[in-house]
Design brief:
elongated; mainly alpha
Length: 334
């Protein structure tokens, strides 16, 4: 009888242990279901059924213990598989139980962030090493340059001193030569330009004199000295026939204004006086008296104006001719 009671107590203790083990597996399966919902749900259902069976078995065992000796002698209570039911119950894995993921394990995003940080640290270390190497090389180059300057400084200073002295000597020799050459070249150029300007002015005066002759005294040929006629023809009193004279007078004044610098002072003064006289004759004595039925006084005024031009034209032509010959032939030998 005492033996039977001990067996009943042992079976009760084993049932309680089985129940505790089932509950522990149920809690672990619940954590695993958070990472995988489908498998967790199936595991929870199977673990729940196993836990239920274990609970029922424990309850039956407790009832048998309370019921008396007939329950202790029942084969269902003494059946050995009841003790091994938790290992073979449906829902438990055949091998060792899978370990649930630790809540402290890093996520994939954290893994990527850690990898980027490690890569950045390696790159910073590499750049720091390159910067240190470059700084070392530059310092070495600076030391080499300083050594070269200290070694060759005296030789370089001596060379620069000799070069400066040589350039000074060359400049002292060349400046007088260049000055004489420029003077010798400038004088012929100036004379050539003065000859060209005087020749151009002379040609314009000649064409002006020819135009006046054609209007007032057409019997004269080009090259003959101008002389006013005794009688003015009707064509000489027509305004439109003096257009060529006015254009040539303006061209002469314009050319003289542009080339006055090339002429000698004496020639420039004489030509300026002639241009002023020409303007006064045309605007005061010629143009106001160009009418078809001119009176005797108007004809006398016109004839007097033409006489003054006839006196001035040879003078200015002689001045320009002398200017041209003196410029083209050069200074007379002393």
């Amino acid at each position: 009888m005492d033996t039977t009671l001990l067996v009943m107590v042992g079976i009760t203790i084993a049932s309680v242990l089985v129940l505790a083990i089932a509950a522990a597996f149920a809690s672990k399966s619940g954590k695993f279901a958070v990472a995988g919902a489908g498998r967790g749900r199936r595991g929870d259902s199977r673990i729940g059924s196993s836990a239920g069976a274990a609970t029922s078995s424990a309850s039956a065992t407790a009832a048998s213990a309370v019921g008396g000796r007939s329950a202790l002698a029942s084969p269902a209570v003494l059946d050995l598989p009841v003790m091994t039911a938790p290992q073979t119950a449906p829902g438990f894995p055949s091998g060792p139980a899978p370990s649930a993921p630790s809540p402290f394990a890093p996520s994939p995003a954290q893994h990527a962030e850690l990898a980027v940080e490690r890569l950045q640290a390696r790159m910073d270390a590499r750049f720091d090493a390159l910067e240190r190497d470059l700084r070392t090389r530059l310092e070495a180059v600076a030391r080499d340059l300083a050594a070269v300057k200290e070694t060759d400084g005296a030789a370089l200073a001596a060379f620069e001193s000799r070069q400066t002295a040589a350039l000074r000597d060359v400049r002292a020799d060349l400046v007088p030569l260049l000055a004489r050459g420029a003077q010798s070249e400038t004088l012929p150029i100036a004379r050539e330009r003065r000859a060209d300007a005087s020749a151009e002015m002379y040609a314009m005066v000649a064409r002006l004199e020819s135009a006046i002759s054609q209007v007032t005294n057409p019997v004269l040929l080009p090259g003959e000295a101008y002389a006013p006629p005794v009688y003015f023809f009707a064509e000489a009193l027509a305004w439109e026939n003096w257009k060529d004279v006015g254009e040539r007078a303006f061209a002469l004044a314009d050319a003289f204004s542009a080339r006055r610098l090339y002429l000698s002072e004496q020639t420039a003064v004489a030509l300026a006086g002639f241009v002023t006289t020409l303007r006064g004759v045309l605007t005061r004595s010629v143009y106001p008296n160009l009418v078809p039925d001119a009176t005797t006084d108007q004809l006398d005024t016109l004839r007097s104006a033409m006489g003054s031009l006839a006196a001035e034209l040879p003078k200015i032509r002689r001045v320009l001719e002398s200017e041209y010959r003196s410029a083209s032939e050069g200074p007379s030998p002393s």
